[in-house]
Amino acid sequence: MQPDEATIVIVEDNFQNYVLMTRLLAHLGVKDCVWKESGWQVLEFAESLPRIDLILMDIFLPGSDGYTLLERLRGHTRFEETLVIAVTADASVQSMRRAKASGFDGFIGKPLNPDQFPAQISRVLSGGAVWECS
Predict the structure, then answer these.
(1) C-beta neighbour count of 120 within 10 angstroms
(2) Is there a contact between 133 and 91 (Cβ–Cβ < 8 Å)?
(3) By 3-state DSSP, what share of the chain in percent is helix, strand and coil, each rounded to 5?
(4) β-strands 83-88, 54-57: how paired?
(5) Are 57 and 85 within 8 A, CB to CB?
(6) 133 alpha carbon, distance to own chain's centre
(7) Which of its termini does the chain have fewer beta carbons within 10 Å around, N or C?
(8) What does the radius of gyration of the chain's CA atoms come to, in whole angstroms?
(9) pTM, 2 dp
(10) Pairing between strand 106-109 and 54-57?
(11) Would you call 56 helix, strand, or coil by DSSP?
(12) Which residues touch 101 (CB under 8 Å, ≥6 apart)?
C-alpha cells in the first residue's frame, strides 16, 4: 500500500510525540492520520472510520495499556487483520518480545529516530516487518 492511500490512527497520550509522528508521516506522503490519546477513545472512534490500515499505539496509555487495547481490538472481526505497531519508550528486547507474543505486528522504540521512522512505516505499509528497539 502506498503511504498516500493509508489511513493511520495514532494512539499516543503525549501531544509532542503525536505531532512528531504526524509530521514524519506527512513527509512520507500520508494524508489521513487521526490522533486518539487513550485506548478507550480509539475503540469508540475506530468503529466509525471507513477503513484503518495501520494503528501506531503507545503501550503506556491512561486508563488502559496497549496490550489490553490490542486484545480488545483483535476481539472485533473488523480489526483482526488491522496492522498494529507498538510504539513505546520501553524500548527493550524484553518489551519487544512481549509485544510480539501479545500479537502486535511490529515494534518501534522511542525516542523515535526521525531519519528511520518514515522508512519503518513505509516498510510496514509495503507488507514488511519492523521490530526495532531504537
Answers:
(1) 23
(2) yes
(3) 40, 20, 40
(4) parallel
(5) yes
(6) 14
(7) C
(8) 13
(9) 0.93
(10) unpaired
(11) strand
(12) none
Which residues contact residue 24 at a Cβ distance below 8 angstroms, ignoring those fewer than 6 apart?
A: 112, 114, 117, 118, 121
Per-residue pLDDT of the chain (134 residues; tens, 9 = 90+): 888 899 999 999 899 999 999 999 999 999 888 888 877 777 777 677 778 899 999 998 877 788 988 998 888 777 878 899 999 998 899 999 999 999 999 999 999 999 999 999 999 999 999 999 87
- SS3 assignment, position 110: coil
Taking the CB of residue 93, how many other CB atoms lie within 10 A of it?
10
54-57 and 7-11 strand pairing: parallel
**Cell matching residue 57:** 499505539
- Terminus-to-terminus CA distance in the chain, angstroms? 25
Q: Report the run of H or E that residue 87 belongs to, with start and end.
A: strand 83-88
Q: Which amino acid is at 96?
A: M
Question: DSSP 3-state assignment of 31?
Answer: coil
Q: How far is CA 85 from CA 82, 102, 113, in A?
A: 10, 11, 15
Q: How crowded is the C-beta side of 36, counted as CA atoms within 13 Å?
A: 22
